[in-house]
C-alpha cells in the first residue's frame, strides 16, 4: 500500500490564525522554524533563557523574544527545539508549570515522548513535525520557494484541533510544498535513531574510515586514499539523491557497476545482523537509557570518543586537501562551530546545537 503524502492543499493555514506559536530554542532547527513561521504570517515568540547568547540574534531577525516561562504562557502552540537530552529539564522547570488546557505541545523528534521522559497532562494536545533535513537547509529551501519533506504525528488530540494545527504548522514551515508523511512518535523515533546509527552517521563514517585505513595500511598514499574513500562519496550520494541506486549505476562505469554487484555484499556481510541488534537496542530503550546516562554523568566518554575521531588520519589529511579546494566551500569545526576554512568560502555553515539556556 502506497503511503499518502499531504501537500499545501491538505493543510489549512486558518487552523493557526490568531494563535501564537512559542519556539523554545534558537539553534539549527529553532531559528529556521521561528523565521519560516514568522514569514508565513504566524505570530511567533522565541523562548530563551535571560542569559542566552541567541537572544540578540533572534531580536535582530525581527522576532519577539521572551523568557521560556513567559513564552509558554503567551502561546497557544509550544514547539520544543532544544536538544533531546536537555528537553526534560527545560520542560519540568519552565514549560509544564505554565501549560494550560487546549495548548498544543510540539516536538521535532519523538525521543522524549516515546521513551517516557516527558508526559504532558491529559488536557494538552501533543504533536510533531519532523523536517527531514538540518535547520539551515529548512531555511534556505524555504527562502528559495521550496520545502523540505517532513514527518508529522499526533500523539494526543484532547482539543479536537491538534491534527489541523499540526498540518498548518508544517505548511507554515514550507514542508507541505514538498510533502509530509503521517507517522507515530514511536515509528519516527525508532527509524530516525536507526538511520543515524546504522547508516547515515555511524555506518557511513565507520565504512569510510575502514576503507581509508585498508588502503593506507596496504602502502597507498593517504591523500589518494582520501580522494577514493571520502571525497568521491559526495559524487555518488548526489547521484542516488537524484535518481536512486538505478541512476547511480547508470551514471558510473560498467566496471564500477559490476564491482558494486559482486563486491558490495562482501563488504556488508554480517552487517544486517548487526543492524538488527542496533534496532533491538533502540526499540527496547537500551540506547536511550545509555545516552541519557552518559549525558547526565557529564559526558566524559562522549567527549573522549569525539576527541579521538577528530584526530583520525583521514580528518587531518582531508582538512589539508580541502583547504586547497575553495570551490568545495570547506569548513573547519572548532568548539562546536563550523567556520569557513578558506578565503571566500562564505559564512559559517550552520548554527550551533542549541539549548534554551
Features:
357 residues; globular; 13% strand; alpha/beta; single chain
Characterize the structure shown.
- The protein has 17 helices and 11 strands.
- It has a 9-stranded mixed sheet, sandwiched between helices. A two-stranded antiparallel ribbon has the order 10-11.
- Helix 1 runs parallel beside helix 6, helix 9 runs antiparallel to helix 14 and helix 11 crosses helix 17.
- With 357 residues, the chain is α/β, with parallel strands linked by helices.
- About 3% of the residues have low confidence.
- The chain is globular and about 65 Å long.
- The termini are far apart.
Briefly say what this structure is.
This protein has 17 helices and eleven strands.
Strand order of the largest sheet: 1-9-8-7-6-5-2-3-4
Give helix % range. 40-55%
Secondary-structure element series: EEHEHEHEHEHEHEHHEHHHHHHHHHEE
Summing up helix and strand content along with how strands pair, one would put the structural category as alpha/beta
So what's the overall shape? globular
Uncertain regions spanning at least 5 consecutive residues: 341-351
The profile of the biggest β sheet is:
9 strands, mixed
Number of strands: 11
Radius of gyration: 22 Å
Distance between the termini: 45 Å
Tally of individual helices: 17
Our estimate of the beta-strand percent is 5-15%
Determine the mean pLDDT: 93
Amino acid at each position: 500500500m502506497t503511503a499518502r503524502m499531504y501537500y499545501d492543499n491538505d493543510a489549512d493555514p486558518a487552523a493557526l490564525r490568531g494563535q501564537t506559536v512559542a519556539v523554545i530554542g534558537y539553534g539549527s532547527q529553532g531559528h529556521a522554524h521561528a523565521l519560516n513561521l514568522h514569514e508565513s504570517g504566524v505570530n511567533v515568540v522565541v523562548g530563551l533563557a535571560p542569559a542566552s547568547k541567541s537572544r540578540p540574534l533572534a531580536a535582530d531577525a525581527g522576532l519577539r523574544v521572551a523568557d521560556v516561562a513567559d513564552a509558554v504562557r503567551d502561546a497557544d502552540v509550544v514547539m520544543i527545539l532544544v536538544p533531546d537530552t536537555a528537553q526534560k529539564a527545560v520542560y519540568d522547570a519552565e514549560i509544564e508549570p505554565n501549560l494550560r488546557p487546549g495548548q498544543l505541545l510540539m516536538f521535532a523528534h519523538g525521543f522524549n515522548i516515546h521513551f517516557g521522559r516527558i508526559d504532558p497532562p491529559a488536557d494538552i494536545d501533543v504533536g510533531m513535525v519532523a523536517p527531514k533535513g538540518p535547520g539551515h537547509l529548512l531555511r534556505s529551501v524555504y527562502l528559495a520557494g521550496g520545502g523540505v519533506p517532513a514527518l508529522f504525528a499526533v500523539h494526543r488530540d484532547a482539543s479536537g484541533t491538534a491534527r489541523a494545527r499540526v498540518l498548518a504548522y508544517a505548511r507554515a514551515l514550507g514542508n507541505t510544498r514538498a510533502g509530509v508523511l503521517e507517522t507515530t512518535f514511536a515509528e519516527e523515533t525508532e527509524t530516525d535513531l536507526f538511520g543515524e546509527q546504522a547508516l547515515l552517521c555511524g555506518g557511513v563514517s565507520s565504512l569510510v574510515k575502514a576503507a581509508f585505513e585498508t588502503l593506507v595500511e596496504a602502502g597507498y598514499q593517504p591523500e589518494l586514499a582520501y580522494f577514493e574513500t571520502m571525497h568521491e562519496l559526495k559524487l555518488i550520494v548526489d547521484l542516488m539523491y537524484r535518481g536512486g541506486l538505478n541512476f547511480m549505476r547508470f551514471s558510473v562505469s560498467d566496471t564500477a557497476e559490476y564491482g558494486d554487484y559482486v563486491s558490495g555484499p562482501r563488504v556488508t556481510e554480517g552487517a544486517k545482523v548487526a543492524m538488527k541488534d542496533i534496532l533491538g537496542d533502540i526499540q527496547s530503550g537500551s540506547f536511550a537509557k545509555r545516552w541519557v546516562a552518559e549525558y547526565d554523568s557529564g559526558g566524559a566518554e562522549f567527549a573522549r570518543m569525539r576527541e579521538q575521531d577528530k584526530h583520525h588520519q583521514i580528518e587531518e589529511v582531508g582538512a589539508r586537501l580541502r583547504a586547497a579546494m575553495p570551490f568545495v566551500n570547506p569548513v573547519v569545526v572548532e568548539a562546536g562551530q563550523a567556520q569557513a576554512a578558506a578565503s571566500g568560502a562564505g559564512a559559517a555553515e550552520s548554527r550551533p546545537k542549541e539549548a534554551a539556556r
